[in-house]
Structures are given as structure tokens and as C-alpha cells.
Sequence to fold (102 residues):
Amino acid sequence: MFGSRWHGVIFPIHESTFRKGLTCAAKKAGITKPCSPHSLRHAYATHQLQAGMPLNQLQQQLGHQSIQSTERYLHWSPELGHQGTDLLANLGGGLSWQHPII
Fold:
């Protein structure tokens, strides 16, 4: 997704380079909460589902081998703007939200 080109070859940027750039961008945007590549990825996945993206399409975008890995983004949260609507309710197939066992 992100990379640098050298002699026509694209090389991926190092994780720490991305993390530093993200931290700098967050500061410039006035974001005071901790920001990490994981939180950015999670926010992206959550918002894509809220916008109606099919789960299997999100699975492909995130590069998950198993659909179960993608299903962890199927949570609901009133503060995210969908008034507590269960995102699983409209998917069919008998899926339902279950709290993780800790």
C-alpha cells in the first residue's frame, strides 16, 4: 500500500516509518488520543462496515485468510453514529453478537 520507488522497484516502507508518519499527522490534526496503525486499521474496517461494505469484500481488503478474523469488526457502538444498531442483524445467516469470553 505504501512504499518508495528506487530504480523502478517499489519497496514497502518500514513499520516504524509508517508509525512515525501517523503520529506526526495525528499531532498536526490535533488528535490527542494515542494513534497507532492498528487503531487506524480498526477504524477503517468499522467505518467500511457501517457504510455497508460486504464482509467478504472487507476480508479481501484487510488480507484476512479467515472470515472469522474479519468478523471481529462486527460490533456495535452507539457513539460511532448508528444508534446502537447491531451490524450483524442485517447480514442474515443467523449471525448474532456475542461478547468475547475473557
Remarks:
- Residues 3 and 13 are 5 Å apart (CA to CA).
- The helical segments are 15-28, 37-50, 55-62, 67-71.
